[in-house]
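Hi R.,

Here's the chain you asked about this morning:
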Amino acid sequence: MVYTMEIYIDSGCRNLGTTRAIGSAAAILTNKGERSNKWTTDLRRGPRSPPPTIQRAELTSVILAIDIATIRFQELDTKPYLDVKIYSNSEYAIDCMTNRIHQCNRNGWMDDAGDEVENRDLMEKVLDLEDLLRDKGDVSYFLIPWEENQEATQFCNRALDDQSRELGPEKYEPVA
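And here is the predicted structure, written out as tokens:
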């Protein structure tokens, strides 16, 4: 038996380049064709965490989707063959997961200039999680038009709005 999960993802950032940079990743798991199960995770600047960027947010949304699929699989009474389909309107996320991440891994996480690739920490994490998920079945990534991902976009924007309210109306200073 095949158990199919469809997950729509999106991400966003605000105030990039300032000390008040925030980011969010969102994922929506469909339930029999209806998008009803929703999750978000925040990216915030911290003393030991890199500043939020749109690329980090996009990779975090993929991690969130794979985490959700893994957790849902563990909750099933049976252990069917899993078919996870992840949809995004982000060309970066889809290209990264279908091409770039595997190329970076083969190249020892070095770019063409011989420097370590950016966001290696998240790329390695997503590869590890993807490997665990592939032990249970397949995972595929699909680029969809922005119009088909509006629910995930709106959910992500609400999470960013919540973070902005928590920060309050303070001065936005550039990162030194």
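One quick note: Residues 109 and 118 are 9 Å apart (CA to CA).

Cheers,
M.
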